[in-house]
Amino acid sequence: MFRPPMRRLELTNVSHCFGETLAVDDVTIGVAPGEFVCLLGPSGSGKTTLLRLAAGLETLQAGRIAIDGRTVAAGGHARQIPPERRGVGLMFQDYALFPHLTVAQNIGFGLHNGTRDGGWIGRALADMRLAHLGERYPHTLSGGQQQRIALLRALAPAPAILLLDEPFSGLDEHLRQRVRQETREIIAESGVTTLMVTHNPEAAMFLADRIVVLDDGRVAQDATPVEIYTAPADPLIVRMFGPANEFGGVVRDGVLATALGPIPTSEIGNGKRALCLVRADGIEVSVAPPGGGAGFVRVRVETARVLGATSYLLLEPTEGTISERSPSTIEARLPGIHVPPTGSEVWARARGEQTFVFALD
Ligand code: ADP
Ligand code: MG
After folding, report:
1. How far, in Å, is the centroid of ligand 1 from the Cα of 17?
2. For residue 49, is it within any domain?
């Protein structure tokens, strides 16, 4: 239905200031033809600015932006290829549909330069099961319908590159998953090279071939979704996926002493400061651990609550080394219903695959 040309997008050593604020700091990102890359990061990390620079809505100050090897903007050069000649499709957070135009007219607005034949809008609407909406106005549509119309409008001119800024943030939680799935199908079918901005790690994990994590204008990690989750390059990336227990201290003899026992720190030298993060999901709790508790620490249950799919436990160590900067309690989230009595003693262990150690020096 869409079949745009597949194009490569490259941002090289891009930096951008707003007055004194360095919003983007020497960022290099490549998106291969047909690839779906997510820019993931907290609010204010520079995601929208990067997207606007790629689109040409913001004048590039430093670095280079190229589409299929052709430079569309270079820092220090006043002349840039304007947005409408970059072959990019844009979709913003608020969809920005024209309120005074019908659905068909909104989509048609994107159809310039004769890129599609006249019947395209009708066929595209029919393909997305939206044919009955063509003559309606945006305010009469649900959030999910508006989202699909905005996506269709962005895809209408057969863009080489699709740029999406928080495309699901306006939707209710229950709608979001369905719309995400539909968006994924539409984009996969079109094969268009896509760069999407989100602050939601789950959306990025679901949609992306590759995730670029931004922190304060810099790239913190550029990797596949599975790598981002299993081998996070920065404490910020561990915290993005939910609560984590954090233990700071000094490495002695290849281990860091924590409230969960000694954690191996093979790559960090003796006497160096380190930070260990153990996801709340990564705490194993047992009443009778195998091997009589080897590798486990004895803990007292302070709180145990069923949250639904998981149970929440707050545990206090009764023994073991607790360093000064470490918290005295441990938060655990266990799948299913697991509510040992308050005040009882159980065993806890940090699962290796959910434990991450970072050098601080
Ligand atoms: P994100 O999309 O990740 O939330 P933005 O790219 O919007 O982040 O913003 C990055 C930083 O640049 C923030 O500190 C923000 O306040 C600042 N900023 C963004 N746009 C402007 C602007 N037009 N004028 C001044 N500062 C801006
Ligand atoms: Mg933004």
Report:
1. 9
2. yes
